[in-house]
Amino acid sequence: MRELARETRLSAGMMVYPMFVCPGKGVREEVASMPGVGRQSAERVVEEAKEVEGLGISGVLLFGLPEKKDERGSEAWSAEGSVQRAIEGIRKAGLKLLVVTDVCLCEYTSHGHCGVVEGGEVQNDATLELLEETAVSHARAGADVVAPSDMMDGRVGAIRRRLDEKGFTGVAILSYAVKYCSAFYGPFRDAADSAPQFGDRRGYQMDPANAREAKREAEMDVEEGADMVMVKPALPYLDVVKRVREAVDVPVGAYNVSGEYSMVKAAAGKGWIEEKRVVMEILTGIRRAGADFIVSYHAKDAAGWLKEQG
Ligand code: PBG
User: Fold this and answer.
1) What angle do CA 296, 298, 303 make, to 5 degrees?
2) In this predicted model, what pLDDT tens digit does every residue of 134-175 receive, in sequence order?
3) 295: nearest Cα among 174, 167, 150
4) The whole model's pTM is what?
5) What is the Cα–Cα distance from 204 to 264, expressed in whole angstroms?
6) How many A from CA of 185 to the centre of ligand 1?
């Protein structure tokens, strides 16, 4: 009867698995604060992507690390960049899974901010052009979906126009429309080596105290051409997931971020919680709040457990 009456279901197909691509060959470095997650060179990412596809997970979300960082983050749009090489590898391997790419500059800039910095301030409009370049370079390499996570104003419209101009009309935009300035990104910044070298991201990421603003951000991005929107982090913002779900008609994703993952892993490692039950409860909660899909570092484990259950 429980099966019959269940209101919320989980499947591997509603999940996206994030991965970190680094330069080089044959490289895999574990991320200390994220057990089970590594930074890997492109060909290793392709191997893991095969496993991800085999588990029935719908897509991967790729983050890149550069050879070297500079003021403008120029490796973000390099045709030989880590992400671009991983995308090409996945396409060459004939994988059908959705290749989603994170479009941002913070992993590539020497100062670690998500945009161009002048006079100690992030410059919104000057940043747009670089994000457009980056999105086009991902599309050219074979990405299906580009996901801008920088939180500059007007970037969805700018990226849409540029993709269309370059003939990539079929590439979709998943906007990190509602991204809070969160301490839960801590372990990610270790993984991507992207902590800001001065100041913080409060100037462009949202105040955790605001929910009405989330609705406005999501509506604006849909108007500018976002095909899907995302709320991030997930757990402290389930009310926001619900509000955004009600506000827009496009698919809504939730990003179960690094810090949320690390907390579970740390407690499970100490034997304080039952990892499998906790993870499934978390993912179910995010779905119940209204997320159509979930980006999570737990995706592979969860997909495996769902398979076992049959
Ligand atoms: C890049 C970006 C971040 C995350 C995704 N894209 C970090 C940040 O904004 O500092 C965080 C993801 C995670 O914590 O898992 N702007």
Assistant:
1) 105
2) 999 999 999 999 999 999 999 999 999 999 999 999 999 999
3) 174
4) 0.97
5) 28
6) 6
